[in-house]
Amino acid sequence: MIMIVVYTSPGCASCRKVKQWLKDRNLPFIEKNIFKTLLNDNEIKHLLMRSENGSDDIISKRSKIIQESHVDIDSMKIDELITFIKRNPSVLKRPIILSENNFQVGYDEEEIGVFVPVELRRLADHSCNETCPNFKACQTMQTAFQKEVH
C-alpha cells in the first residue's frame, strides 16, 4: 500500500480538508504536525528535492519570520536553508502532501485525486453489482473518482 504523509499545523483549514478527503476515501496517511514533530535534515532535503521549484514551492516568503528578519531564502546554501526551516517551521506552506509518486502543496480539489492509487481508479472505472464482494468499496471509489473527474 502506498503511504501518504501529510505535513500539517493546528488551525489550518486546508489541512483539515486534505485529512477529511483522505479519510472519506479510506486512504491511510501519516500526519506530521510541523510544530510537534521536529523535521530532520533528510526529511526537509527530501521535500525540497520533490518540489518542482525548490524552496519557492514549500516556503511562504510572506511569512512573518521572513518579513521581519529580512531573510533572503534564495541566497542560502542548502544546509543553511534546512537549519532555517528546522528553527522556523512556520515558514512552510501547509499542507504538504507526499507519497511515493506524488507531491502537492495546499488543498487543490482537482489535483488531489492523484493520491488515489491507480488500481483503485481502475476499479472505480468498472461497474460492478451488489453480488460483487467488493461492491461497497467499488461504489465508494467510483463515486469519489467521479467527483475528482467532474
TrEMBL record:
Protein name as annotated: Transcriptional regulator, Spx/MgsR family
Highest taxon of source: Bacteria
Pfam families membership: ArsC (PF03960)
Alphabetized NCBIfam families for the sequence: arsC_related, PRK01655.1
Family label: Belongs to the ArsC family.
Organism field: Solobacterium moorei F0204
Annotated InterPro entries: Arsenate_reductase-like, Thioredoxin-like_sf, Tscrpt_reg_Spx/MgsR
